[in-house]
Automatic annotation (TrEMBL):
Gene3D superfamilies registered for this protein in UniProt: Skp domain (3.30.910.20)
CC terms in the record's Gene Ontology section: cytosol
Descriptive protein name: Molecular chaperone Skp
Pfam families tied to this protein: OmpH
Family: Belongs to the Skp family.
Keywords linked to the UniProt accession: Coiled coil, Signal
InterPro entries, A to Z: Chaperone_Skp (IPR005632), Skp_dom_sf (IPR024930)
Annotated coiled-coil segments of the chain: 68-128
GO terms under biological process: protein stabilization
Gene Ontology MF annotations: unfolded protein binding
Length: 153
C-alpha cells in the first residue's frame, strides 16, 4: 500500500513536470502596444474635421431654434403670455440640445470606428497582440500613437 502511494506521487510529479515543460515550450511572448487616445483625438486631422463639423452643426441648431429673443423685456405681454413664451423657449432649447447630442453621438461613433480600424491595422502591421491605453501603462510597450494619427489622415 505504501509502495502504491509512492508510485502514485512519482507518476503525478512526472506528469506535472511534463505539463510544465510543454507549457514552457509553447509559451510565446506577447507584444504589447500602447496608444495615447487624448493625443490621437487632439492631433488627428480626422478628429479635427469631426470637431469642425460638430461646431457647424451646433451653430446651425442654434440658428434654427433662435434663442436670442428676450421675453422679459417685452412690456406688451401679460404675465401669462410671458410664462407661455418662456415655456416655448425652454422646449426649443431642450429640442436643440437633444438634436445636438444626437449629432455629437453620431460623429463620435464614426470617429471611434475609424480609430479602432486604424489601431487594428497598425497592430497587425507591427505584429502586436495587445493594445492598451498609455495612461494605464507605467512603462513598456510599443507606442503606436503617431502611427494611428498617420492612418487617420
Amino acid at each position: 500500500m505504501r509502495f502504491s502511494k509512492m508510485k502514485f506521487f512519482i507518476v503525478l510529479s512526472i506528469l506535472v513536470l511534463a505539463v510544465a515543460v510543454i507549457a514552457g515550450c509553447t509559451f510565446q511572448e506577447r507584444r504589447i502596444g500602447v496608444i495615447d487616445m487624448n493625443r490621437v483625438i487632439k492631433e488627428s486631422p480626422r478628429a479635427q474635421k469631426y470637431q469642425n463639423e460638430l461646431d457647424e452643426k451646433g451653430a446651425e441648431i442654434q440658428e434654427k431654434y433662435k434663442f436670442n429673443e428676450d421675453i422679459k423685456e417685452d412690456k406688451n405681454l401679460t404675465e401669462e403670455q410671458k410664462l407661455q413664451k418662456e415655456e416655448e423657449r425652454r422646449k426649443r432649447q431642450e429640442a436643440a440640445l437633444q438634436e445636438f447630442i444626437k449629432v455629437k453621438k453620431e460623429l463620435e461613433q464614426k470617429l471611434n470606428q475609424e480609430i479602432e480600424a486604424a489601431v487594428k491595422e497598425v497592430a497587425k502591421e507591427k505584429r502586436l497582440d495587445i493594445i492598451l491605453y498609455k495612461q494605464s501603462v507605467r512603462y513598456g510597450g510599443v507606442d503606436i500613437t503617431q502611427d494611428v494619427i498617420n492612418k487617420l489622415q
